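Example 367.
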Amino acid sequence: MSTVIPIADLRIATARDSIDALLRAKGSDAPSTGSVLDTRSRALRDLRISVTDRCNFRCVYCMPKDVYDAEYKFLPRADLLTFEEITRVARIFVDLGVSKIRLTGGEPLLRRNLERLVEMLARLGDVDLTLTTNGALLAKKAQSLRDAGLKRVTVSLDSLDDPTFRAMNDVDFPVARVLEGIDAAASAGLSPVKINMVVKRGANESSILPMARRFKGSGHIVRFIEYMDVGATNGWKMDDVVSAAEIVRSIDAEMPLVGADPSYAGEVAGRWRYRDGGGEIGVIASVTQAFCRDCTRARLSTDGRFYTCLFANAGYDLRALLRRDSADAEISNAIAAIWRQRADRYSEIRTANTASVPKVEMSYIGG
Ligand code: SAM
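Predicted structure in complex with S-adenosylmethionine:
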């Protein structure tokens, strides 16, 4: 593995001063409402909320064990946004045009009483409320999450081959328990269940076809994800990326596919349908076919920083605003001002050199 850059410094690197500067420049007491556009005319539509920076897996490409070991200092409880704080910020984002909220992490099902947060967010109105999980605790929680108002789930599963999967999650977790979680989610009505498989060359590309075969005709949608250079700990190399084109070619050779239109503007996954009517797959080609142009996603970290890109290296400290009794209008204006000056397009300008630029870790910012 290449040199590991410690991320602790990055987590405290904050652009709080720039929030104050933005607010001074704005100088209005009226809350921003309605759609806001960034410098490239991209609207603010999706919010990913990381509810914990902890995970019960140590996926080699995300939270490698040699960094996230027993010594690793996860955020102390007092630093986490409370459910009330998360809901308040989420409501402000919704008023600014967000229509889709995804709970993530870390592993979101590790956050105690998550169902209570789901219930609070479900009351925000017409919002597509979803969650991404590794599935380890899903069999136990699918029904209560559904009852609380969750609409759908995405489950990460990198292989159906037990030794391969156990090696990738690096905590010896078996495939069968994730499959139980997927079944429980479908029975609870959290469907269609999406299944995320990150493809890393040399690790699991031989699992692409078995995965496609297994879920074809099941009603679940497998999404194959190009391995990305998120964070600074996974030792990413371009050679490790199996391109979406290669993935589609290999599936199409056995199970013919036809391209399908996006279900909505800004959809991350490219959609492909099986020609025989056996459902569809998605491919997320953020490395070989960057989709920055349509990116409408904002991220809220576990400790309340607002990030405008998955590959950012600094966020805006909304928790400081929340905890100094700022009015909703002040927070809303700060978010709108930050979004209006957003110019991120990391994936479009990625090179072998940018991969080593410090970035926040996905477990903290929310995958
Ligand atoms: N713990 C949850 C899970 O496993 O789904 C949610 C958080 S995880 C960071 C969210 C998604 O990001 C997972 O599907 C994971 O496979 C994906 N992911 C993590 N690191 C990645 C990387 N380097 N490249 C591509 N996808 C990655």
